[in-house]
Specification:
It is built from 1 helix and 11 strands. With 123 residues, it is mainly β.
């Protein structure tokens, strides 16, 4: 399984970005996809996750109300809409996929990881 993330960039505080992630290779009938981020000098942290129906989502407290994760129409795709961005959102963002249960993603141990995409928020 290969995960291709895109959409990162440089934005001013208060601005918005949308990240995209598409999985290719093996497909799964049930799965969870999510986003993590890692800022310089910090550990990678969970940001958001969604199930294969798009009906179940989970967010880190730090992004709740500002970020929205959604499942794409194409199978095994996911988006992260980021609004009201803050300088502390600056990080490399990684998408992830796990065919198991959401707790695996929430625990930071998904089976598959994508390459990161840099998000930089200037003050």
């Amino acid at each position: 399984v290969q995960l291709q993330a895109s959409g990162g960039g440089l934005v001013q505080a208060g601005g918005s970005l949308r990240l995209s992630c598409a999985a290719s290779g093996r497909t799964f009938s049930t799965y969870y996809m999510g986003w993590f981020r890692q800022a310089p000098g910090k550990e990678r942290e969970f940001v958001a996750a969604v199930d294969w129906t798009g009906g179940r989502t989970s967010y880190a407290d730090s992004v709740l109300g500002r970020f929205t994760i959604s499942r794409g129409n194409a199978k095994n795709t996911v988006y992260l809409r980021m609004n009201s961005l803050k300088p502390e959102d600056t990080a490399v963002y990684y998408c992830a996929l796990d065919p198991g249960n959401i707790n695996v993603i929430l625990g930071g141990r998904p089976d598959y990881w994508g390459q990161g995409t840099q998000v930089t928020v200037s003050s």
